[in-house]
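Predict the assembly for these four chains.
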Amino acid sequence: MKKVLLTGFEPFGGESVNPSWEAVKQLNGEVAEDVLIVSEMVPTAFGTSISVLKQLIQQHKPDVVICVGQAGGRLHITPERVAINLDDARIPDNEEKQPIDEAIVRNGPAAYWTSLPIKRMVEKMKESDIPASVSHTAGTFVCNHIFYGLMYYITSTSSDIRGGFIHIPYIPQQTLDKQAPSLSLETIVQGLRIAAVTAVQYKSDIRSVGGTFH
Amino acid sequence: MKKVLLTGFEPFGGESVNPSWEAVKQLNGEVAEDVLIVSEMVPTAFGTSISVLKQLIQQHKPDVVICVGQAGGRLHITPERVAINLDDARIPDNEEKQPIDEAIVRNGPAAYWTSLPIKRMVEKMKESDIPASVSHTAGTFVCNHIFYGLMYYITSTSSDIRGGFIHIPYIPQQTLDKQAPSLSLETIVQGLRIAAVTAVQYKSDIRSVGGTFH
Amino acid sequence: MKKVLLTGFEPFGGESVNPSWEAVKQLNGEVAEDVLIVSEMVPTAFGTSISVLKQLIQQHKPDVVICVGQAGGRLHITPERVAINLDDARIPDNEEKQPIDEAIVRNGPAAYWTSLPIKRMVEKMKESDIPASVSHTAGTFVCNHIFYGLMYYITSTSSDIRGGFIHIPYIPQQTLDKQAPSLSLETIVQGLRIAAVTAVQYKSDIRSVGGTFH
Amino acid sequence: MKKVLLTGFEPFGGESVNPSWEAVKQLNGEVAEDVLIVSEMVPTAFGTSISVLKQLIQQHKPDVVICVGQAGGRLHITPERVAINLDDARIPDNEEKQPIDEAIVRNGPAAYWTSLPIKRMVEKMKESDIPASVSHTAGTFVCNHIFYGLMYYITSTSSDIRGGFIHIPYIPQQTLDKQAPSLSLETIVQGLRIAAVTAVQYKSDIRSVGGTFH
């Protein structure tokens, strides 16, 4: 049986929940189509997030790692295409660090591509009526940080693990007093299950229309 | 036992489903807190919608009537405050009628207020983590038309029935290829159940902050 | 020569400028196509705004009155179709009054229609490449209040004056640290000039597509 | 005197104008703060855009090159931080080419950073009340393509030229029948003038808050 490690973040930025953790924790221990899902929480903190992630990888020895994070304001579940070598925080993280215009890995490459079949993951989610699309920016906060850190780790250790990142919208309870879109937790959980299984089952991606103008 | 009649519309405007009917049909026959919910479909057509609604009222003899319609692009479930005496259609309705700048009722009042406790309905939905807020425009298409027609009917027949209108967002399956927000069908069904029961149980509204700047 | 009175509001809600006053003051004293424009500021306050407006009408004896207000977040210049008999403030006004769910005029009609040719005004603005559309809600704050007060005054005094309200977007300087659209002050000034002259020149409106779904 | 080359694109995607060319052509030949601005149009076509750009660089021998493109739907003028080695077109370009998931430069680096002081450019524009912010994705259409091609050219030729890309919103005339934000052409021209001069005058950037969550 193949294993996929899903991570979700702690709440940050004044929110009392983080939908990424709320969603992935529901999938912990689930076996879907011969894929075992293991879920863990990681801190919303620049340095610590990567060191915790490395420990989790060594502990669980997954075939695929998918870090999941909140993208408040987005409409869709969005697998990310690319991680960039940049920390540029709008607010302090949960350990009060606020790096500005700093490389994540000194002399690291400017960017890493995901090694997940993101267009296939999007297609499978849409086949189940779940709003999904590819994103070309994971931002410059802890989400991009852990995504870059994950891909650097995989590359620099010549690991066979494949990895990537998925951003998810707010859940409804976070938008009661905000003018912002949401997707229900059930929809997000279903989408992540499909995405995780697809990521394990397929190493190559499909070639379909899914780019962005800007 | 009190009875509430919920109506949903046929699909229109190129959509294959109308979330208002998808949602209210799930509640048909349900008894919640000593309130019986009866659900019916009405045509998305200016003239016919009101005549069908009148027949349904005479058939079911409800205590409360709530018409429900799709507001594609809205973020929240939005009970409407006011219906205006105006048909002004951007597109033809499902019977190919496209009235422009016409009164719904000649010499009728410019507007009717809902007779439902809309702020209480919003409050109750939010207590269950459902995004909801009061709206001050039901537009000028068939949604506003049936809402005005309902309130005119109630007023002109001196009926004890109380009535109103609720707009709901798209459901996720409608937004797969749109940049638009949605709420899951489950969330909408739960919200409408709460709103319907609250509308029957309370004749008076609460006084809470819920206005709009524009 | 015909005369049109334009009013703009004081800043409110933490803004340092109000684009409605910034725009209308630039038109004060201008003569365009045989129409004299007179501009005045009114307070962003429920009670005072209408009493000040009445004094200005008696002082200037205009043929047409157009009150202008900020609609932060809107994309277009939006002549309003209808004023409703409701004060429902999200925040205190500039005199610390915050009416909630109160009638503007006790026993007044639920709503008044504008007496301006709003679709013609929209058409003329669009012919000059200015984003404009009809709106069907002026909200429930001071903008709707003065609009309703104006139409009540005209009606109850059997005046020949025609009146209405136009909402305008933010100007760019207000959006430097907001995720919100704006139109430049020059565009708004040009749009209001066109709208004001059109409002004076035409008593009847055109019949064109311009309704809203919700 | 230093020289900056600004490029704008041909219209595409059904638009009759491209605001990038409308804006940059107004700056052609202008001297601002001892900086000469030269403006040229480039085709909205994957392959051709870069070859035309190279010819223009060899012809004009600029100190700084800034390519400008339309980002319909954006609120701000957005200097781009990073170009990625990916063509992924949602629609065919103006030469009917629609590459999907193809590298721009085979074996090229995944990404290049801009060599312009983008935070300083944003700061200077905001000081003049122009809505501006840093962007971390230039998309995957011709805008990103020419940006990557520019940075690859500069790097592979060991040129001293500094280069980058700026996305701009629609202008108002494009949004008459769209629900989309715009900035006036005057505002965009003023913003690009400030950005161009700042880009020439400063080689190093400031360290200020300007990252994105996602």
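The beta strands of chain C are 2-9, 31-32, 35-42, 64-70, 78-79, 82-84, 111-113, 162-168. Chain C has one domain: 2-201.
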